[in-house]
Specification:
Blueprint lengths: L14 E11 L5 H11 L3 E6 L5 E8 H13 L5 E9 L11 E4 L1
Parallel strand pairs: 2-5
Antiparallel strand pairs: 1-3, 1-4, 2-3
């Protein structure tokens, strides 16, 4: 049996938590659904939700590489979305400690 390389094991040391505010045509175009699929594929915990101002908020926690991949994905968005801007804020990991899986908030 071959050992699993240490660099792919999850580690608290490399956990990152972010909040992304996504601007553009991002509501009513399947953005939340596709975000959930992408984040789940990346093994992230968190949620995505529409905000009253027409933006979408993504709160995500996971390893740095997965977070970077989600940020890159969010800049393109779902097929019908027209993303104009993504604003990132760091979030204390403790704020996300209760999150399990990646959900769509309504």
């Amino acid at each position: 049996e071959r050992p699993i390389p240490h660099n792919i094991l999850p580690s608290q040391d490399f956990m990152e938590s972010i909040k992304l505010s996504v601007y553009g045509t991002v509501q009513g175009v399947g953005f939340r659904y596709h975000t959930q699929i992408e984040a789940t594929k990346l093994g992230l915990n968190g949620y995505v939700k529409n905000l009253p101002d027409g933006t979408v908020e993504i709160l995500a926690m996971g390893n740095s590489e997965a977070i970077a991949a989600l940020k890159q994905w969010a800049a393109q968005g779902s097929p019908a979305a027209q993303v104009t801007q993504v604003v990132q804020q760091q979030v204390p990991p403790a704020d996300l400690a209760e999150l399990s899986g990646f959900t769509i908030k309504r």
